[in-house]
UniProtKB/TrEMBL annotation:
Phylogenetic classification of the source organism: Bacteria, Bacillati, Actinomycetota, Actinomycetes, Micrococcales
The reaction(s) this protein catalyses: adenine + H2O + H(+) = hypoxanthine + NH4(+)
Biological role stated in the UniProt entry: Catalyzes the hydrolytic deamination of adenine to hypoxanthine. Plays an important role in the purine salvage pathway and in nitrogen catabolism.
Binding site for Zn(2+): 16, 18, 195, 276
Family membership: Belongs to the metallo-dependent hydrolases superfamily. Adenosine and AMP deaminases family. Adenine deaminase type 2 subfamily.
Gene name linked to the record: add
Protein residues bound to substrate: 277
Enzyme superclass (EC): hydrolase
Protein name: Adenine deaminase
Length: 325
């Protein structure tokens, strides 16, 4: 079994982490105090006791209300910096991190406050050896109009984001709902990715849409693609990365999907390992690699391949990517 030192020493990229999902209980409480926000809990133990998830919906019901403590630019800076430093300690060299602007703008926090704080943290990360990029995620359970307004609010900050994504509750919110907004984002030069969650009935149809109509550059989760060998062949040929999150999977489906991830790896698909919402699911990237190796029964060679995949699937420039391959 690969040791912790081996896993941390392996250079890795993290491509699927929600910055709001890195809000640790102690920072949540500190921000609540700083901003005078009552979150109904006053100790780390009380906060942790509220983390009992068995589905995406039960997770999201805890995740969104917690964001009320994030108000000022400094709050967003502190949130992202804590995560970037933690990731760096795990041997992560490059991050492409999601943020959910609509979860803040709908509470009255300006887009500018969010992006300015997060970008300042991303820029400062270079000082401790980490390159960091931001991916703007639209909430799929909000309207396409709201996503469009959010894209327009982001365009003045176009250079501060590398791409757009789609997250939150997938039921009844297929990729096609956002095809036009994603087309506009592509026109603005942004990369595209969308969540195709593993616990969704009919998710193979959503995977078909993201590869066909939307033409994404990556898929977040997406292990259900094994249901359609033609789609597996397509992502392999197009070198489309799948950003898998085994520990997160184990919370929302009681299954890491380790067998599926190993099968995709064996088929030559660009699968990667990521933490998703580490403060809630209890594992940052290094622990995710270790837990996955144990569950999947794999060794160093496969972890090395998964780490290489993380750079190949990244949106680094060709020159920067080459330095890691
Ligand atoms: N937002 C944060 N984490 C998410 C996940 N795992 N799936 C969908 N939306 C999310
Ligand atoms: Zn996610």
């Amino acid at each position: 079994e690969p040791t912790a030192a081996f896993v941390s020493g392996l250079p890795k990229a993290e491509l699927h982490v929600h910055l709001e999902g890195t809000l640790e209980p102690d920072l949540k409480l500190a921000l609540a105090t700083r901003n005078g926000v009552d979150i109904g809990q006053s100790t780390v133990e009380e906060v942790r006791a509220s983390y009992a998830f068995d589905s995406l919906a039960s997770f999201l019901a805890v995740y969104y209300p917690a964001m009320n403590v994030l108000i000022t630019e400094q709050d967003f800076y502190d949130l992202a910096t804590a995560y970037f430093r933690r990731a760096s300690a795990d041997g992560v060299r490059h991050v492409e991190a999601f943020f959910d602007p609509q979860a803040h703008t709908t509470r009255g926090v300006p887009f500018e406050t969010v992006i300015t704080g997060l970008h300042r943290a991303a820029a400062d990360a270079a000082g401790y050896g980490l390159s960091a990029e931001l991916i703007l995620c639209f909430l799929r359970d909000a309207s396409a109009e709201s996503a469009h307004e959010t894209l327009l609010a982001a365009l003045p900050y176009r250079d501060l984001i590398v791409g757009v994504g789609l997250d939150s509750d997938e039921r009844g919110n297929p990729p096609a709902k956002f095809a036009e907004v994603f087309r506009l984002a592509r026109e603005a030069g942004l990369r595209l990715t969308m969540h195709c969650d593993i616990d969704q009935v009919g998710s193979i149809e959503n995977i078909r849409q993201v590869l066909g109509e939307v033409r994404v550059d990556r898929i977040d989760h997406g292990t259900n693609i094994l249901e359609d060998p033609a789609l597996v062949a397509l992502v392999r040929e197009r070198r489309i990365g799948l950003t898998c999150c085994p520990v997160s999977n184990s919370f929302v489906t009681s299954d890491m999907k380790a067998r599926e991830i190993v099968e995709l790896l064996g088929l030559g698909v660009l699968v990667t390992l990521n933490s998703d919402d580490p403060a809630y699911f209890g594992a940052y990237v290094a622990d995710t690699y270790t837990a996955f190796a144990r569950q999947a029964g794999i060794g160093r060679d496969e972890l090395v391949q998964l780490a290489r995949n993380s750079f190949e699937a990244s949106w680094l420039s060709d020159a920067d990517r080459q330095g890691y391959l």
